[in-house]
Amino acid sequence: MPIKSNAKKTAARQRFNQAVIIIHGIGEQRPMATLRSFAEGVLPIPRQGGEKYFSKPDPMTESLELRKLQNRSQPRTHLFEYYWAYKVEGTQIGDVLNWLKTLLLRKPRAVPGQLMPLWLVSWFLIAVIVSAAGLGILNKFVDATLKSPSFFVAVLSALILAGIQSVVIYFIGDAARYLSATTRNIRLRHEIRADGMKLLKKIQEAGTYDRVIFVGHSLGSVIAYDILRQVWEEYQEEYRTPQKSDQPALVKVEQIGEALRTHRAEYTVQDYMEAQIDLWKELRSLGMPWLVTDLVTIGSPLTHAAMLLARDEDDLRARQRQRELPTNPPEYEIEKIRKNERRVYSYRVWDKYGKKKDIPLRALHDAGLFACTRWTNIYFPAYFNIFGDIVGGPLGRLFGAGIRDIAVSSNRFLCDHSLLAHNAYWNGARKVEKPNPGKLPDSLNIIIQALDLDNKNYYAPIPGRQSVRS
Questions:
Q1: Is 40 exposed, middle or buried (0-12, 13-18, 19+ CB in 10 A)?
Q2: For residue 300, what are the CA distances in angstroms to 188, 381, 395?
Q3: Domain spans of the chain?
Q4: Structural Rg of the chain based on CA atoms
Q5: Which parts of 236-354 fold into alpha helices (H)?
Q6: For residue range 219-270, what is the model confidence (pLDDT) as tens digits?
Q7: How open is the CA angle 231-237-241, to the nearest 5 degrees?
């Protein structure tokens, strides 16, 4: 019997399939451009030579502009792109100005520390432009010669304004439309999220994949976060009737998660991430259909969530406590067990027939997503909050101590210290990481490690399932 069982297990692992969904960032992106460059960076060169991947029809996205990419090694990996840029049409400078107004017209204490330099520079530029325009008007009445300093200041201000408009409309415009919940943008936000949710649900329900990895770059990381939290709320109540429900992996995640939250030193983020995978496998064994093991955010503006998703940090914290915005580890409940109290991310449920078990099944709550889904956040540091990727940054302080924040480098000085860094995360050739004390790790190698595509140990078959809705 053990030999037969192992043979079945080996055969199953040989059929292990996984899907990577990458969501592009802001700008006028072309279909497949992000996906192809990402695949070229993260996939290994085949031993037999030739191309790194095959391009195959994509039945999941329902778009003739998109295809899925398939690697040429085991485990079998399909890479999908969720392409949303074409939905953002008709962006006007007024959309951007309305959004910028909400960001700039706030008290300094409501501006996140990492954005304070940019906030001050923005106000300085506004003052310069207004002053230059005033000098130009004054020049018209006082000194109309083309050689006057006011004329050149007026021209320079006009060029600066034109440059800002072009950058804003073509790049920041996407963020302005998606992050601003105005009446004009509600349908756009709904369509972007709904189509992304549809793609994830089709992949999870196809019966083809054993694991899903979500990757979001720039604004795509915010969209990925929104999609995951919405789909989780639909799936988190689906289980089969368990034969046993002591759920040791769940207890372990709650124990380590609270140790991290309270800054106790006996556990590390790595311990927590290993426990998350154990819990994910445990939930799968109980019939839970959730396939997403990892969220990888790259250059994520969620580092400015207190400014982008809420009025200020107090408002952000309130929404997290209310379970509107999931954290890692999740928000806890205090549960009394006999005379003891413990912090939990779950609640007790009953089986199909309403019979109480000796050890009742526990289900993660609506914002318990990151109890069983790891979150790795990769970013280029912005030195003095100006020189580097000012869009991205660490997320642990705002979204929880369970996030693995990793500062990286492109190993190119000019890139690392300018806005060029934001689009350089997976540029370069795949190579073996060599430890170098005092030096930030190479960004591409960290992405490869976070994806963990060569690992077959994520196999966790799911039995039949039923709902635990009350």
A1: middle
A2: 21, 12, 8
A3: 14-86+187-467, 93-179
A4: 25
A5: 248-261, 269-285, 305-308, 313-321
A6: 999 999 999 999 999 988 887 766 667 889 999 999 999 999 999 889 999 9
A7: 140
